[in-house]
Amino acid sequence: MKSDFKVLISALALFFILAKAGLVSAEISASLVSFSSEKLLQGDTLIIKVKKETGLGQPSGEFLASKVDFFRSETGDWVGFAGVDAKKKTGKYILTINFPNGEKYQKKISVVARKFPVTVLRVTKELKDQGYSPKSIANDVVNQEAPVLSKIFRNYFPAAYFAKPFIYPLSKVEIGGDFGNIRKNQGVSLQHLGVDLEAEMETPVYAVNDGAVSFADNMPTYGKTLIIDHGLGIYSLYLHLSEFKFSKGDRVKQGDVIGLSGNSGYSISPHLHFSIKLNGAAVDPLIFVETSMVEILK
Q: Which of 110, 112, 164, 281 is the Cys-Cys partner for 85 at CB 3.0 to 4.6 Å?
């Protein structure tokens, strides 16, 4: 009996030591915190839900050296997004959730390798006649377009413009080019950090959620590009458009027709290139949308 009592005391002492170290919480029950997955592929999206029953107010967090801000969904629960960049090193990482009363909850999340196929960076005769080549495309992306986009993504709005799941940007989703493909030609290698969706010329393109237009302009390789800031470091990108329906600074609602698909910039044929940036991480946009549909209102 004394032996059992000692074991119990030792277990309780260890629990409170771990709680003090922030590895477990004496107040936050695991049943009140859920995760879309504890094992993520490169390019995946993690959604964290904190049940309103905690009663501790709005949490905040950190994962993969980025902050995780939470918003209140239509269910009343707190929801946070975290992205695993397509190029993130594999391994185990700690997700930390902080509460206003000083409590914290931590969870180990595994990041595993995703196999990205290698394809050809195609340049048709028509594109060559327009001055495109593998080297010119790489130069435009790295030296002209990337700096512009990086400046946009550094703007962080700490609240969500939205409260519901994301939707697809087209009424029909048919993949023409996968996320993460590594495209090579003539010594040039570029990773396709979005997904190409089949679309005829001037197909309506929809805002995937509420937000503010942070960019709507023509770019050398990406063509007519529109970017929506959804808050919390979440940006959706729509490339190769033929026409804009909104301008920089405009507020948009989910489902608004923000533009028409096209063939502008470096494009083999009419389509929509759709991307999501999540706190600077390039994530698979279709997995992002699908995860939000499953998790936010669950």
A: 281
